[in-house]
Amino acid sequence: MTDDHLENLPPNDRRGFFRSSLSRLLGPVADYIETKLPIDRLVPLDLLRPPGAMAERDFLDTCFRCGSCADACPADAIVLFTGDGGERRGTPHIDPNRRACVICDDLSCMKVCPSGALRLVDRHDIRIGLAKVNHSICVRSNGEDCTTCVDVCPLGRTAIRIDNNGRIEVIDPNTDGKGCTGCGVCQEQCPTRPKRAIQVHPHAH
């Protein structure tokens, strides 16, 4: 379309022309992003899923949102998400500030899941997330001999310990084979307030 012809178009038609042109220009870019970028990057990773959960994108596509895992949890650690009206609504998650997973002997949530969104795995292979320590607010930084997070960990010193410098050290299972499962007991029991010195962050699949 020539510039002269464009100038003669009514304002509404000119806006339509520009919208159409922009759509044709950005369409291939959007298609490229959709096909080339891992879809999990488009999914918020701020919720801790129950033990045995699939990668977040697969989890959201598979979970029935039936609440069976929450009903079966002996620790009452699993709650259903109500924070938004999107696809995460009704899905199970764990908030360690409220109640942590205790990696129960029966592994109940995985056994009752009817959809397969939670898969039965060995307790040492559970990967809910990874605990991270904020040493600037940890009471050990102020000289207190606190070992609460180490003492309450269901897996003990195979997951968390005191390092040679006297600081809390979380064992990353990606480097050690065994290590932190991300159950959140350390976060629940951490004495620092209002912010916990140790918090579990979801794994980026």
Give a short synopsis of this structure.
This protein has 205 residues and is α+β, with helices and mostly antiparallel strands.
Walkthrough of the structure:
This protein has helices spanning 3-7, 11-36, 56-62, 68-72, 108-112, 148-152, 173-176, 185-189; strands at 78-80, 92-94, 129-133, 160-162, 168-170, 198-202. It is α+β, with helices and mostly antiparallel strands and 205 residues long.
Topology:
Layout: H1 3-7, H2 11-36, H3 56-62, H4 68-72, E1 78-80, E2 92-94, H5 108-112, E3 129-133, H6 148-152, E4 160-162, E5 168-170, H7 173-176, H8 185-189, E6 198-202
Antiparallel strand pairs: 1-2, 3-6, 4-5
Low-confidence stretches: 32-41
Number of domains: 1
Order of helices and strands: HHHHEEHEHEEHHE
Chain-averaged pLDDT: 85
| Euclidean distance between termini CA atoms | 48 Å
Q: How many β-strand stretches?
A: 6
Q: What structural class is derived from the secondary structure elements?
A: alpha+beta
| Sheet having the most strands | 2 strands, antiparallel
